[in-house]
Amino acid sequence: MNSFGFPILSLVAYIPLIGCLILLFLNKDDHKKIMYTAFGVTIVDMLVSFLLLFGFDSSRAEMQFVEKGSWIPTLGVEYHFGIDGISLLLILMSTILCAIAVVSSFTAVHERVKEYYVSLLFLQTGMLGVFMSLDLFLFYIFWEVMLVPMYFLIGIWGGGRRLYSAIKFFLYTLFGSLFMLLAILALYFLNRNPEYGTGEFTFNLIELSKMNLPLWPFQFWLFLAFFLGFAVKVPMFPFHTWLPDAHTDAPTAGSVLLAGVLLKMGTYGFVRFCLPLFPAASHYFVPLIAILSLVGIVYGGLVALAQKDIKRLVAYSSVSHLGFVMLGMFALNPQGITGSVLQMINHGISTGALFLIVGMIYERRHTRLIADFGGLSYQMPIFAVFFAITMFSSIGLPGLNGFVGEFLILVGAFQYNKIYAAVALLGIILGAAYMLWLFQRMMFGTIDKAENRNLTDMNRREIAYMAPLILFMFWIGLYPKPFIRIMEPAIINIVQKVNPNWENKPMAAEKEKAPVAPAAIELPAAETVHEVETP
């Protein structure tokens, strides 16, 4: 039994689903009641998720708040939830962004309002389930379930070529997921062989991580299959082509959750599954992934410079930023992976805020073309301040959150390969170029469009939902220690599994310290496990 005495992870995961059921019984024409109910559900879920911080032991690497029960016994499928420091931070970020996405939609959605908020809440359950699942079968269900509401959000409430973008998003992700499903089934059967696994049929991640698979052929091909599933979701170059279309045509809340949470499911998949399950293959594929990451960093920055649409510019900036995340992760050292996980959080905050800013200006002008703006700082001074802080956060200005993550990633990459770090620096320069160019074109100069002369500044609701994101930008930028402390034991655990001799490398910052004993990858003691009969 965990310290709360009830299955808190299940509660966090299914509060939004309960909210969906409540919304179904409301009058579809009572938009205000629907909106406030959906917002209330996300606030309750966010507050319950923050309870996890009070019961979480940041000195432990193993999974906590574990909930485990038999689900489909004949197949060895379990209802198995648990979190470590990495997943805890992603869960907290998800619940915050979901609440903000709901409140930002109050004035943006006017048709099929009930269905819209049901889709948002259903999407929230899918995303949270991905970060909690410790059974690969359960993980795959949440992974696929998440596609459905996002498909509808883009296809029904999007703009432009929304049907094309929704189908493209769905098919790309489904394509990668099928390869991942084959790899999950292969692990399931390989574990039955005592030569490689425990001799049992199981989808339990903890048990599967104990397998002893040779690089060739098993780790090689299984890593590639998982790679396709996760690389499409990140998205890594050259699997990124669905992202600009999806962002451009998605509603504002859809773009916020797509950039802030859904893309992190891909990077989370790499750190949660690929590194611990396939350590030898992770080493083998480092050069390939590093090169693809560097290409994505530079390519995303260059293409962002050429964009005329604000949303497409921010979308291509995500390709560049997530290239940094992948580069740090596959440096396979504590600095790189810590920077990578921290940058997942930073990207969710900063890019989520950028899409909210784009949504505000689109509601007022119904255009996203950069050329249609200019001189807005005179007409909308509060908006200009929020935009400036968010822009500098995205660039990685010291004192804001983006700097800490990028710095750690560069330190990790430098330890692995100095050339990789040098090329990555070009991405930082390009990031500053396209963001400063965007800000200068929109905020400065003269107001030469008549439509811009009557634009209203940010209202209290918009300030209220932007303020928490600005707070986190400064908090992480000035004092990242609490965030790093939460994730550090889990990251050290992963590094010592995938790269056991990391502390012996001459450039490692820890070379003067005593060796750290690897944390066992096993379930917590029985008294910390909350048994669940059925999900």
From TrEMBL:
Residues 133-428 form the NADH:quinone oxidoreductase/Mrp antiporter transmembrane domain. The chain crosses the membrane at residues 6-27, 34-56, 86-109, 116-134, 140-157, 169-190, 220-243, 255-278, 284-306, 313-332, 344-362, 382-399, 419-439, 463-480. Belongs to the complex I subunit 4 family. GO terms for molecular function: NADH dehydrogenase (ubiquinone) activity; NADH dehydrogenase activity; ubiquinone binding. This is NADH-quinone oxidoreductase subunit M. It is found in: Endomembrane system; Membrane. It comes from Candidatus Manganitrophus noduliformans. GO terms for cellular component: endomembrane system; membrane. It is an enzyme of class 1 (oxidoreductase). Pfam families: Proton_antipo_M.
